[in-house]
Amino acid sequence: MSNDTGSGKGGDGAVPLLQVRGLRSGYGRVEVLRGVDLDVRAGEIVALLGSNGAGKSTLNNTVCGLVPARAGTVSFDGQPLAGRHTKDIVRAGLIQVPEGRRIFPNLTVQENLELGSYARARERRGANLERVYAIFPRLAERTTQLAGTMSGGEQQMLAIGRGLMAEPRLLILDEPSLGLSPLLVEEMFTLIARLHGEGLAVLLVEQNVGQSLDIAGRAYVLENGALRFEGTPAALLASAELKRAYLGL
Asked: In the 8-state DSSP scheme, what is residue 245?
């Protein structure tokens, strides 16, 4: 695995907010992740890149407790997550906005958002609703609209807004730009940069390589369930071999 040692794991001496070591995971007899190490420190954007089938969503779901790990460790804020219920992981502030949005189509915009605070930050639901509506004015205009009748871009806003309702300490965004128009993709990455500017740590899982690297502080490249690169975006883009082999650039 290529590695830019100047920005490697725990380079500032601080314990990472999310720390993954030797993670193995899969489904049935199929092993998808094969010994993955990954860190996200407080307040940084980390891009996780790779083609379809590389194991990105499996990594997200294993970290969040939706898929059991077969080996290795996952720690959040220094506490191991193995065996913990997904609700407890959410309560700790580790929130995923999954690929495909997975909103509740037969509930209204506001009902979807309120569900985001079911396990965490319920007592600040009203204030967080106001914050989400300030970030996404289009949602504020559609509070009583059924979520399933909205456009794909609006549903993506709703999915992210629902995640923000839980006051995440780390937000995992799985393919947030998938299926969006170029204009909405620009808006999405501007939003992610804004949230980062407010101090939120983000693990950005994307196939949109160029814009992901524009806003990320560090990047990982996953291929066939194993890491092939860890380092700065500049180091990744400086390698013609890596760009050609793993990023299609």
From this structure: I
CB 26 within 8 A of CB 33: yes
CA atoms of 140 and 121, how far apart (whole Å): 20
Of 113, 135, 167, the residue at which a domain comes to its end is 167
Of 175, 230, 243, the C-alpha closest to 207 is 175
Within 8 A by CB and 6+ apart from 61, the residues are 67, 96
Q: How many domains does the chain have?
A: 2
46 and 152 housed in the same domain? no
Separation of first and last alpha carbons in the chain? 19
- Asked whether residue 38 falls in the same domain as residue 160, the answer is no
Cα dihedral across residues 155, 156, 159, 164: positive or negative: negative
Structure tokens at 28: 């049935």
Rounded-to-integer distance, Cα 170 and Cα 164, Å: 10
Q: Write out pLDDT tens, residues 130-140.
A: 999 999 999 99
Phi/psi for 90 (5° steps) reads -65, -45
Stated as kind and residue range, the H or E segment containing 152 is helix 152-164
Beta bridge pairs of residue 93: none
* The two three-digit tokens of residue 239, written as one number: 């390698």
Q: Which residue has the higher pLDDT, 130 or 14?
A: 130
The reported pTM is 0.89
